[in-house]
Design brief:
Number of strands: 7
Distance between the termini: 31 Å
InterPro entries: ConA-like_dom_sf
Mean pLDDT: 93
Protein name: Laminin G domain-containing protein
Oligomer: single chain
Structural class: mainly beta
Strand content: over 45%
């Protein structure tokens, strides 16, 4: 990641107009990065962040991140450590 951030990856709809599933990295102030899990269902008009996490900045460093997605929560693992959990509503 560079200082501007951007999508780590994104799966888009067939028209390339909306992100169905993706991971977005954005700067979040001094020394911090916002990691968002992006999701959209067929009913959504726009992509939305279903869970966001503020972590220490990791510009131009290999860093392990993983998500555990359950029916009502998303957990972020950052540098192989369980970092935080967010409640989510997929409807």
């Amino acid at each position: 990641m560079d200082r501007r951030g951007g999508y780590l990856f994104a799966i888009v709809n067939p028209y390339d107009t909306m992100v169905d599933v993706g991971v977005l990295l954005e700067p979040a102030g001094s020394g911090q990065t916002n990691i968002s899990l992006i999701y959209s269902s067929r009913r959504d008009a726009n992509s939305r962040a279903i869970a966001s996490f503020i972590v220490p900045e990791f510009v131009q460093q290999w860093t392990q991140i993983a998500f555990e997605v359950n029916k009502d929560s998303v957990t972020l693992y950052f540098k192989c450590i369980r970092f935080a959990e967010r409640e989510v509503n997929f409807s």
